[in-house]
Automatic annotation (TrEMBL):
Residues 200-219 have a biased composition (Polar residues). Residues 196-219 are annotated as: Disordered. It holds the Pfam family CHU_C. Transmembrane segments: none annotated. InterPro entries: Ig-like_fold, T9SS_type_B. It comes from Fibrisoma limi BUZ 3. This is Gliding motility-associated C-terminal domain-containing protein. Gene3D superfamilies: Immunoglobulins.
Length: 953
């Protein structure tokens, strides 16, 4: 069954902290809490705790016998008042409680509207008495949450504050389930029109609008501590009545599972009084069963007497200072505040006394909210201050843990025993943890759960006092064990870990000392694969301990962690010193060291009653497996092995061959291995070991490089230190680097015409042209000079995209682009490497033509073959098209024609011969230049047409 632990404030104390005057009518504060009644049904007890103004709202309070509950599932109910209790100076505590069954899992917001708030609340303008009061609570019903209840707020929401002084309030929220609580500010709500639909009151004014500067001189503030729930206003600037709201969030395993809104009211007075103080307290951490006696000291700067009160889960009283109803209690009451709740001269003291027990264990700490109220002379209002005493209650460690080696079903085992564990509620489990190695037993105080490095191996009922661990234990390895209690419930938490128990399993079996690859090959290759395996004689086996003859059986499995072992050799031995019976060269059929690693295990047999009987087997040990990954002008090596010794904290050697798998291999590097990520090496071509010859040089993508790695290791067990350094070679692995380096880009030059130096006769009658391209490779640090070909790109016009025209084999650096009707065009060149990578394009070079056109001023179309047409003088250059218009002396157009050349025979457009005389012309000429959009040249002039048999020479 689940219970609520709460603490209330004595009626006397609560009365003293109320102001000496109150305002009128009705609701001052309140909140809704819920409690699930059974884990097998969805029935909840829902409680509204409301605080009414009885001085000026007595009639409204009298009439508030029922309030409507909205359950968030579409149903409502009028709920009667079950408690109406005066709490002094015009206020009452009112409780409305109902049970409600929800239809299924989901998220439900339970709300209550009461009409109306009391009047004269300054920050709820224009008239707070006309505003309805609304609070809500949201719960999540989820089978995974099991039984769950909302937190309860143990400190009533009615306090006094003084103008100019920092005011703080703490709701003393407590969650019986041990869920985490978080706090945030909200806004008072009303529910106009529909009691089930609320809104933030639109005219709410933040208290900082009625503030002075803070006590420290900084800007005014109004905030809530998200962890402790302490709400502070620093500092009120006007006396009067104020309401504000905040939300308590309930979290479990990082998931929000509910929230409660508290709407509260304070009275700010402007009187000569300073708030009292509680001496700060450090967080406590104690084991369950400890008696806590914590002294609390309070003072008042004005010398007034004070009252010390406390709220928190370890108390069994509610806000009315009365015991909680049956079903919410954990009898007996187990915490008291000695000398609390009475008026004392200051410095005043009270003792928080709590006899803790194992039923109270949980993961979340307990927060004890301490409150001090001063008692000034009337009519001055009392002021309050808060402190939080945080207590972590942890479970004691399992006692009497022992560990000893044993055997179970012919398997190695460790037998654990411990004393019966009695702490924790029903459902407490004991978790057995194990790790390899035995470190000093240094756990920081107040640390629960298993220390780092331990892994869970078993989970047992609380009643268990023994456990046998048989899970893949290895000879010669030290093991440490601890036991931790896990308490029931989602937030039950863990106990302190037991003292660790360390042991090593005794060595009776041989120990493998080497698995090295002698040659790399497959069943069809030459040489074939070969692995040498070495081992020790049985350790700890004394002459006469067991009967002979003896036998070794060597087993092999494929892969680094293979377990499908099959026999590869049987070796009879007499255990005679010096006998060559602890080595085996594996060259059996099917061995493929090129494709995979192999794992070996050795069994040792003795003779019992004439039968060979297995004594034990070694820990399996694999060959070293090397892999090589190609990178940019480099090769990355990584290797691994599954062996019973440690290859950590050793220097491994890297060997490389530039001539193939048959070597020779040069030592090029040593790698200091410190952790799993250190079994790597990146080869960029260097070689720093001169003893066997230096083989440094860049790695080429056109070559293959072969590697093998020599690993080094030692057994961690001091009993095996005599085996010294264990060296093993990997297989040979070959690879080629990649090279995505682009070739260096060429710098291009194109021979072009010098238009200024051309004579009128230059290029006369030439119709075919050649452009001559030359270039030079521009070497740079990050480009490849190994070029095998150059590509030529060309575009006729500068506006066009260049397209591949041709290519030239390296090392040529000349290209002649011939058969052109004009020299105009644009060029670029790129370089291509052996791997087909192309460089960036060279600079873009555009060349242009040198156009020219000169017209005569007389021609004689008389058929004598001389000057019969009106055509350009000398040599026109790079003319692409011509348009001619001819006009007589009166401005009438007599001829119009166009073509690739200019040639007018003196006839009109209709073909009639024109008479001799002076004619005017306009010529539009387009030239074959590099600019596609170049405008035409317009030539205007006159020409004398002469017939009558005159010949022009």
């Amino acid at each position: 069954m689940k219970f609520f632990y709460t603490l209330g404030l004595g009626i006397l104390g609560l009365c003293l902290l109320c102001p000496v005057y109150t305002y009128a009518t009705h609701v001052r504060a309140g909140e809704i809490t819920t409690r699930r009644l059974s884990p097998t049904s969805l029935t909840y007890e829902i409680t509204l705790t409301a605080y009414f103004d009885e001085q000026n709202g007595r009639l409204a309070s009298d009439g508030q016998g029922f309030v409507p509950f909205c359950f968030g599932d579409g149903t409502t109910q009028e709920v009667p008042r079950s408690v109406r209790q005066p709490i002094g100076f015009g206020s009452s505590l009112n409780i409305y409680r109902v049970t409600h069954t929800f239809s299924g899992p989901g998220t439900y917001t339970i709300g209550v509207q009461i009409i109306n708030r009391n009047e004269n609340t300054k920050n709820l303008p224009p008239a707070s008495a006309s505003i309805s009061f609304y609070v809500s609570t949201t719960i999540v019903i989820n089978p995974a949450l099991q039984i769950n209840s909302t937190p309860v707020m143990l400190n009533p929401p009615l306090d006094s504050a003084r103008v100019g002084q920092r005011f703080c309030h703490n709701p003393a929220a407590f969650d019986i389930d041990g869920d985490s609580l978080a706090y945030r500010l909200s806004v008072p709500k009303d529910a106009p029109g529909n009691p089930c639909i609320s809104r933030n009151y639109p005219n709410y004014q933040n208290p900082t609008q009625y503030s002075r500067t803070s006590e420290s001189g900084g800007p005014a503030s109004f905030s809530i501590n998200a962890s402790t729930g302490e709400l502070c206003w620093d500092a009120p600037g006007e006396e009067g009545q104020y309401n504000f709201a905040f939300i308590v969030e309930e979290w479990r395993n990082g998931v929000l599972i509910g929230e409660i809104t508290r709407d509260m009211q304070i009275i700010v007075v402007d009187q000569p009084n300073r708030r009292p103080q509680i001496q700060p307290l450090a967080e406590l951490c104690v084991e369950a069963g400890t008696l806590i006696n914590q002294t609390i000291t309070a003072t008042d700067p004005d010398g007034h007497r004070v009252i010390i009160t406390a709220f928190g889960g370890p108390f069994n009283t509610g806000p009315d200072n009365q015991p909680l109803p049956n079903g919410q209690l954990v009898p007996p009451a187990y915490a008291r505040l000695l000398n609390g709740g009475i008026v004392q001269n200051q410095p005043a003291q009270a003792t928080f006394s709590w006899q803790t027990n194992c039923n109270q264990l949980r993961d979340e700490p307990y927060d004890i909210t301490l409150k001090v109220t001063d008692v000034p002379p009337r009519p001055i209002a009392g002021l309050v201050s808060f402190q939080t005493l945080r207590i972590r209650l942890i479970g004691p460690a399992v006692q009497g843990l022992t560990a000893r080696p044993t055997a179970q079903a012919s398997r190695r085992a460790v037998l654990l025993n411990w004393q019966a564990y009695t702490c924790g509620a029903q459902g407490t489990q004991l978790i057995v943890y194990r790790k390899e190695g035995c470190d000093p037993d240094n756990i920081p105080p107040c640390t629960t759960g298993a220390p780092p490095g331990y892994v869970e191996v078993a989970r047992l009922p609380q009643s268990a006092t023994t456990y046998t661990d048989t899970a893949a234990l290895r000879r010669g390895i030290g093991y440490a064990y601890r036991i931790v209690a896990r308490y029931p419930g989602a937030n039950g938490g863990f106990s302190v870990a037991s003292t660790q128990q360390c042991l090593e399993l005794p060595l009776l079996a041989p120990v493998i000392t080497q698995v090295t690859v002698d040659s790399t090959g497959s069943p069809t290759s030459r040489p074939a694969g070969q692995i040498t395996v070495r081992w020790s004689r049985p350790l700890g086996l004394q002459p006469g301990d067991l009967g002979g003859p003896y036998q070794y059986r060597l087993l092999r499995a494929e892969g680094l962690t293979g377990t499908a072992f099959t026999p590869v050799a049987t070796i009879n031995t007499s255990l005679a010193p010096g006998a060559a019976d602890t080595v085996f060269v594996d060259r059996t059929a099917g061995l493929n060291t090129q494709a995979q690693a192999y794992r070996y295990q050795l069994e040792f047999y003795y003779t019992s009653n004439g039968q060979l009987t297995r004594l034990d087997a070694t820990e399996p040990a694999s060959s070293v497996r090397l892999s090589v990954t190609a990178g940019q002008r480099q090769l990355s090596l990584s290797w691994q092995a599954s062996v019973p010794w440690s290859n950590q904290n050793q220097t491994h050697r890297i060997y490389r061959s530039r001539t193939g798998p048959n070597g020779p291999f040069n030592l090029i590097a040593e790698v200091a291995v410190q952790g799993p990520a250190s079994f790597t090496f990146v080869d960029t071509g260097s070689d720093t070991f001169a003893q066997d010859g230096l083989s440094s040089g860049p790695l080429s993508a056109d070559s293959s490089y072969c590697y093998r790695v020599l690993t080094r290791g030692r057994y961690a067990d001091a009993r095996l230190a005599g085996f010294g350094l264990l060296e093993n070679y990997s297989q040979i692995q070959c690879a080629s680097p990649i090279d995505s380096t682009r070739p260096c880009a060429p710098a291009l030059r194109v021979d072009s015409l010098d238009c200024a130096s051309l004579s009128p006769e230059s290029l006369c009658n030439q119709t075919s042209f050649v452009n001559r391209l030359t270039w030079q490779l521009q070497a740079a640090p990050n480009c490849d000079v190994g070029v095998v070909r150059y590509r030529i790109y060309y575009a006729r016009y500068e506006q066009d995209e260049l397209r591949r025209l041709d290519s030239v084999a390296a090392p040529g650096a000349l290209y002649e682009h011939g058969g052109l009707s004009t020299v105009a065009g644009c060029y670029q060149v790129s370089a291509v490497s052996r791997r087909g990578l192309e460089s960036a394009l060279s600079n873009r070079v555009c060349v242009d033509a040198c156009p020219a056109l000169v017209l005569p001023n007389v021609f004689t179309p008389n058929g004598d073959g001389k000057n019969d047409v009106f055509a350009p003088l000398r040599c026109a250059r790079f003319v692409e098209s011509v348009e001619l218009e001819v006009f007589n002396r009166w401005g009438a157009r007599v001829y119009r024609g166009s073509g690739a050349v200019l040639s007018w025979d003196g006839r009109s457009s209709s073909g009639e011969e024109l008479s001799s005389g002076l004619y005017y012309y306009q010529v539009r000429v387009r030239y074959a230049v590099v600019d596609r959009n170049a405008p035409p040249q317009v030539l205007k002039g006159w020409v004398q047409l002469i017939r009558d048999g005159v010949s022009m020479r």
